[in-house]
FAD-dependent oxidoreductase (Amphritea balenae), 424 residues
Amino acid sequence: MTTRTGETIEIDTLIIGAGQAGVAMSEHLSKLGVPHLVLERNRIAERWRTERWDSLVANGPAWHDRFPGLEFEGDPEAFIPKEQVADYFVAYAEKFNAPIRTGVEVKKVERNVDRPGFTIETSEGLIEANRVVAATGPFQRPVIPAIAPKTEGITQIHSAEYRNPDQLPEGGVLVVGAGSSGVQIADELQRAGKQVHLSVGAHDRPPRSYRNRDFVWWLGVLGEWDAEAMKPGTEHVTIAVTGAHGEKGTVDFRALAHQGITLVGLTEAFNNGTVSFKENLVENVNRGDKNYLDLLDAADAYIERNGLDLPEEPEARNMLPEPDCMTNPVLELNLAEAGITSIIWATGFAVDYSWLNVNAFDEAGKPAHQRGVSTEPGVYFVGLPWLSRRGSTFIWGVWHDAKHIADHIATQRKYSAYRDPSQL
Ligand SMILES: Cc1cc2nc3c(=O)[nH]c(=O)nc-3n(C[C@H](O)[C@H](O)[C@H](O)COP(=O)(O)OP(=O)(O)OC[C@H]3O[C@@H](n4cnc5c(N)ncnc54)[C@H](O)[C@@H]3O)c2cc1C
């Protein structure tokens, strides 16, 4: 399949990255008979192995968070531990003999000037490819906001570096960010006996399960995973979900507070060892509650419209009383006086395409594409947030995006191979 000309490998399509996106791309290209190669700088699905905390389990049940072609072994309602998620992708790649080379990093991709295709510089030499697919992930570079204090003596890590409570020094922790990572880490630290402050911004918090169906099912039947764009004004709204406590695991900020976590509003600034929070905790929690209740309403309406026989669950609408940290919100906190010795920044990730030197980015430097087909002919992106829909970064969503991109590649190959009658 691959031809060697001296040091340079020639291949039709090069996929960069062997996470779920790269594996899905390889499966679809294999089915279409497109010669390709996947380069992965570490191991298959490396991020699941070494770039996430030890206790992480998939956010969705096994029957849902998977590719169509392979089921997880065991209970389909289980939430699969991260190592097994990684093993799943290794097994999946083996299933169709995916041409993946691990331990090879792509350092630079450039469009050829005097001939079609791209020259790719890797840690193991040069590659010539007609097409490249960037499958390097939606969460490449941990982002810590500029407000992070320069104060000595405070341990600061990003959620991507967090592994377990033992890693942190004695003392309290401020977790900044209450999306799925922040709430899970704060919960784990509090249960391990730490004093935890959790800084909460705008979020959605779907019920883990309602009327015997997991929220992933509800979002599916209600068409939410297929939403093509974020609703206006929700660009900074994160989703707070966890698989850590099974079907009982609805993220409920009031419950986290009653459990012993001190909730605070959005983190605003650090000055001389004192952190200040916006006065928006109550607003943020109420907004999340509304999102939760709206989903219950939509689920009830769906059940009624379709005449489904699912048990009623009125108690799902009971809200816990407002905890003290909501009635008397903390707006300022001296870190030393509060005994806080570490800060975990669960503040998300950015992409990094500094190695992709092609005309596939807009003025703001963001990938310019339509469903992954970029503005630079022959360059594709897969796995990005909202690539085609809400589900695009998730295991079950990326597979469908990869299929579309593989189809596009196969069609382009057909055009390239075409010869008019005079050439035959
Ligand atoms: C904490 C957390 C929990 C999540 N839980 C779930 C969940 O439960 N269910 C779900 O569906 N989704 C979940 N996601 C979202 C998503 O499924 C994962 O982020 C997933 O890892 C994305 O897969 P990917 O293949 O797009 O990217 P990645 O997994 O990031 O894979 C990209 C690969 O590219 C490699 N790479 C990068 N640059 C280069 C280079 N220059 N040369 C060669 N190789 C390179 C990397 O080593 C990496 O292996 C979670 C995300 C996070 C952060």
The radius of gyration is 24 Å. The first strand starts at residue 3 and ends at 5. Residues 281-306 form the longest helix (26 residues). Residues 144-345 form a domain with the FAD/NAD(P)-binding domain fold (CATH 3.50.50.60).
